[in-house]
Design goal:
Distance between the termini: 28 Å
Helix content: 40-55%
Largest sheet: 2 strands, parallel
Number of helices: 8
Order of helices and strands: EHEHHEHEHHHH
Shape: globular
Strand content: 5-15%
Structural class: mainly alpha
Strand order of the largest sheet: 1-2
Length: about 190
């Protein structure tokens, strides 16, 4: 088993260190693949230092937030499949969820199913993309971590779009994370550590 992270020029680069710590904690290998095209494209607050990460608001304009990185998960899955193909791996696992998310279309089940079909056709390999969090709320994800004995690993994780540790507490990712822990009635080990 191996975990993959992608260095795509994200402002929250701390997630790369966090992923390595979690892999070390789990005793599995970890690789970081460089993808600098997203930063070159710009237009997302996650890759463009000139854009501010928005604070969630009820009166936010309709449409995708400026934290959306177009096709990010599609590219990640493509590179993950290419990496897996070279190693005879057929099973890919992605942490995407269409529940409690920011509306990103590349986190939806139908997108992942279409991507799985595309990868199978394009590489002639029977890839299976597993999405264990797809239909779980953040609360349910926290509860799953507790049930699996993985709560400690969440203390190593990172989700703040501003790349802060401790987390900023105001970006959409921080608000969703805090809501999930609060609804589960469990202290977030990232904040309480």
């Amino acid at each position: 088993m191996i975990t993959l992270s992608f260095d795509y020029g994200q402002r929250h680069r701390i997630e790369l260190d966090s992923a390595q710590r979690i892999a070390d904690h789990a005793g599995v290998g970890h690789a970081i693949l460089p993808i600098d095209t997203f930063a070159a494209l710009g237009g997302s607050a996650l890759t463009d230092a000139g854009l501010q990460v928005p604070v969630p608001a009820e009166d936010a304009p309709p449409g995708l937030p400026n934290t959306f990185v177009p096709a990010r998960n599609l590219v990640f899955l493509t590179y993950a499949a290419a990496y897996a193909w070279q190693r005879g791996i057929r099973h890919l696992v992605a942490g995407v969820a269409q529940t409690d998310y920011s509306g990103y279309p590349d986190c939806r089940e139908e997108t992942i199913e279409a991507m799985q079909r595309c990868l199978r056709l394009g590489m002639e390999r029977d890839f299976r993309i597993h999405t264990p969090l797809m239909h779980r709320s953040k609360k349910e994800t926290v509860e799953l971590a507790v049930a699996l004995g993985a709560l400690e690993a969440l203390g190593f994780s990172h989700s703040c779009y501003n790349g802060r540790r401790p987390p900023c507490g105001t970006c959409a990712a921080c608000v969703l994370r805090a809501k999930g822990f609060a609804e589960a009635g469990i202290d977030d080990p990232l904040v309480t550590a």
